[in-house]
Amino acid sequence: MSEDRIQIQFIPSSQVPADVQRQAEHASGNVIRHDERIYLKRGEQFLAFEDSPLGEEMIRWLNGDLLNSDRIQTKEQAWQKLLYGTDDAAVRFLKTEGFRQLSDRCVTVFVPCQNYADRSGLRLFAEIAPIDPSDQIVFLADGGVALIMERRVHTEEEIAEFVSAMIETMESEAGQQWNAGIGGFFPELAEMYRSFREAKKALETGLRFRRSDHVFEFRKMALERMMETIPNDTVSTLKREFMNPRVRKLMTDDMKETIETFFDQDLNLSLASRQLFIHRNTLIYRLEKIKKETGLDLRRFHDAVVFRVLMNLPDEKTGELQ
Questions:
Q1: Which end of the chain has less neighbouring CB within 10 Å, N or C?
Q2: Which fold has domain 75-224?
Q3: Would you list the domain boundaries of the chain?
Q4: Roughly how many angstroms between the first and final C-alpha of the chain, as a whole number?
Q5: pLDDT of 274 higher than 80
Q6: pTM attached to this predicted model
Q7: What is the mean pLDDT of residues 149-155?
Q8: For residue 293, with 0-12 CB atoms within 10 Å meaning exposed, 13-18 middle and 19 or more buried, which class applies?
Q9: 230-317 sits in which CATH class?
């Protein structure tokens, strides 16, 4: 095996060998060696890779006292601690390293769409991601990456644009697909765990409701977060009432694109028709077909909001409507 490559697997606790489970229950640490493999326990799952010098390096890289050591020796270790909770020692360390205690910062979490054994993607990420000395990269134990950025250096719009560019670069240069969640800005170092949680929540919610997107901003997902609170029985009722088989048949890819473009152009018929390269009357005809089947006129703000919610309610919340 190449010295730059190591096969990593993410395995649920229920699927690891019984001996590994028993050792994990009684081991003082979270590293278990079994049958020439190393298992690194992380919550309810394990990372598994070969027991070799490269495996040892991976242990140091993923686990290497970043979360468990009381003594903070590196900036990455300090940021690791702050992402998972408040830590006065980590704050003091970062202040000595020149990081300002009071300065709005946000966390972006990047997660690969699949497990990549080749670490060249992470090396590329580390090379191109920091665009200012105040930026900080933190490699996460689950294979993801956190990027911490300051508002005084980057505006919210610039961060969103940069994250999108990062996703495109990783795909074009490394052949890897990633998704990203962007948390909100918080003024104190000790509050970075809040932005970290928001970024992860944005990813979780975004991948559920906007599967065609790759970048999700927590503060711009209020509607999707509210939709998550709708009870299953209410979802079922709404789906039966509005998304009957006739409507589902009507929702071709062209129709979905028409509706999304119409919404993106703020219900402006002229702008939407130009964006779609269709005649304005063609757009009106398609919207009339939706109105006929659902009773919702998407040219009216109220009806457009209702339909947008209905479109984004995931079918998996109801068994019979999948």
A1: C
A2: Alpha-Beta Plaits (3.30.70)
A3: 9-62, 75-224, 230-317
A4: 44
A5: yes
A6: 0.65
A7: 87
A8: middle
A9: mainly alpha
